[in-house]
Specification:
- The chain has eleven helices and seven strands.
- The protein is an alpha+beta fold.
- The chain folds into two domains: 3-149, Up-down Bundle (Four Helix Bundle (Hemerythrin (Met), subunit A)), CATH 1.20.120.450; 164-259, Nonspecific Lipid-transfer Protein, Chain A.
- The longest helix is centred in the first third of the chain and has 24 residues, at 41-64.
- InterPro entries: DinB/YfiT-like, Maleyloyr_isom, MDMPI_metal-binding, SCP2_sterol-bd_dom.
Length: 263
Amino acid sequence: MSNADTVIAALRSGHDSLAALVSGFSDDHLAGPSGSAEWDISQVLSHLGSGAEIGRATVRAALDGEPNPGREFNFAVWDRWNAMSRRERADGFLVSNEALTALYESLDASTRESLLVDLGFLPAPVDVATSARMRLSELALHTWDVRVGSDEHATVAAEATPLLLNAAPELLAWTSKPEALDGRQAVLQVTTTAPESVFTLSLAEQVSVDLAAPEAPDGTLTLPAEAWLRLVSGRFAPRYTPAGVEATGAADLDLLRKVFPGF
C-alpha cells in the first residue's frame, strides 16, 4: 500500500467508527458537552461536516483542473451549517463526511500518486497523501472531542495515531504560543509509546520538533503517542491526562499546556 492508501484507509475506519456512534445520538446527546469548551457535540459535527464539504469541493477542483473554490465559498458553507439545527448537523455530517471519504477512495493508484491539491491556505499545492492526512488529523482529533464528552478516558484512534505522529512537525511553529514561555528556553526529549519514538522538542522563540533525539536534554517527557497528539492540539487538560505520563526537569506539563493551547 502507498502512503496515500494507508491514510485513506484510516479515513474510512475513522468515518465508520464515528458514524456508528453519531447514528445513535439522541437530541439531548447532541446538545451535550464536547472536548471543546466552546462547542456542544452538534457543533463539533457541524465543523466536521462543513469541513468535509469544503474538502470535497477542493479535491474535486483539483481533479477538474480548477482553482481552489476560495474563501467566499468556505464562508457560505460555514454560514449554512451554522444555521442548521442540532439534528440537521448530525445528519449532515453523516452524508458529507461519507461523500468526502468515498471521493478519496475513488482515486485510482495513478491519481493518488500524481494529483496535487490546492488547499487554499498553504503556499503550494500538496499531494493526495498530505491532503488526506490533514483531513485525518481533523477527523481523529474532533472524534476525540465527541467521545470525551461521555468518556474522560477517550483516546485518539489507534489507526490514525502513527500516521499523524510527527507527520508535519513544522506546523508547531504556528500552532504553538511561545510567548507563554516568557523568555525561557528548554530542549526536551520526548519519548512516545504505541508507537515508540524518540525526538526533540525545542521550546524557544520558535517552538520546533527535531525527529532526532537530543544529546543533552533539559528535561524528558514520556507519554503515549496519542496523548502527544492531544497535548500539542490543546486537548491535555489534567482530567484528560493519562496515568503514567512522566515529566522530568524542564518538562513542565502546566507550561506545555500553555504553550499548546489549541487551535
